């Protein structure tokens, strides 16, 4: 199965690394073709043309993945999922892409929420032989305000002076997630899994 994915990050971004890794764990025979549009404004306004190209390349389905909050957080303003979706659908329509071929996955608030679901995976990354760490799972990580900031604090509290780097550390954490069922406390991950595999998760 060939699946196209469109991300708001750069070619070496955390979103791409994490989602591609999880996709291969969920669907072993998957072939992934990814497009990175560098930031959220580009993604919501330009995804249509990228989706059209991916369909021409033979992708059976396309998943557009973005964080509700952009990398910056200004004035305490809360982004609007409905507005994001409307701009995305307009971009797809202009590019002549049928919406039934494309699935939208918005992570609330940002990718790091998925990582917080598995405290053991984080523990494996921050632990040292002389300083083992035990970090609990977050039961509702998508409800946590600014999960990236929280993860950065965890890293510093446990001796990682540079803190959390999404480009380097997100992939390390996700590769230590053994049981993907832990991520099912994140509604956006459940949606990602369903749209990727075409199988609806049982409640």
Short overview:
This protein has 203 residues and is of the alpha/beta class. Helices cover 44% and strands 12% of the residues.
Structure description:
- The protein has 203 residues and is of the alpha/beta class.
- The protein has 2 domains: 2-109 and 186-197, Rossmann fold, CATH 3.40.50; 113-175, no CATH class.
- The chain contains 8 helices and 4 strands; from the N terminus they run E-H-E-H-E-H-E-H-H-H-H-H.
- Strands 2-1-3-4 form a 4-stranded parallel beta sheet, sandwiched between helices.
- Strand 3, helix 3 and strand 4 (102-107) form a beta-alpha-beta unit.
- The radius of gyration is 17 Å and the shape is globular.
- The mean pLDDT is 93.
What spatial form do the alpha-carbon principal axes imply?
globular
Main-sheet strand order equals: 2-1-3-4
Q: What is the distance, rounded to the nearest whole angstrom, between the alpha carbons of the first and last residues?
A: 26 Å
Helical fraction equals 40-55%
**DSSP summary: helix tally:** 8
The multimeric state of the shown protein is: single chain
Number of strands: 4
* Broad CATH class of the largest domain: Alpha Beta
Instruction: Indicate the CATH topology of the largest domain.
Output: Rossmann fold
Strand content: 5-15%
Task: Using the 3D structure, state the CATH architecture of the largest domain.
Answer: 3-Layer(aba) Sandwich
Let me know the largest β-sheet: 4 strands, parallel
Low-confidence stretches: none
Sequence of secondary-structure elements: EHEHEHEHHHHH
């Amino acid at each position: 199965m060939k699946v196209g994915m469109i991300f708001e990050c750069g070619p070496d971004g955390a979103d791409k690394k994490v989602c591609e890794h999880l996709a291969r764990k969920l669907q072993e025979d998957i072939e992934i073709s990814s497009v990175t549009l560098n930031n959220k404004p580009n993604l919501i306004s330009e995804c249509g043309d990228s989706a059209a190209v991916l369909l021409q390349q033979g992708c059976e389905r396309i998943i557009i993945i973005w964080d509700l909050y952009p990398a910056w957080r200004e004035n305490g303003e809360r982004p609007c999922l409905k507005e994001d979706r409307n701009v995305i659908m307009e971009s797809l329509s202009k590019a002549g892409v049928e919406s039934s071929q494309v699935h939208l996955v918005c992570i609330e608030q940002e990718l790091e929420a998925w990582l917080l679901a598995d405290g053991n995976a984080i523990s494996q990354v921050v632990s040292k032989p002389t300083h083992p760490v035990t970090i609990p799972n977050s039961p509702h990580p998508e409800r946590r305000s600014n999960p990236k900031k929280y993860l950065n604090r965890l890293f510093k509290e446990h001796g990682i002076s540079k803190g959390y780097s999404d480009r380097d550390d997100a992939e390390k954490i996700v590769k230590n997630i053994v049981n993907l069922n832990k991520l099912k406390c994140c509604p956006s991950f459940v949606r990602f899994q369903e749209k990727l595999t075409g199988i609806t998760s049982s409640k």
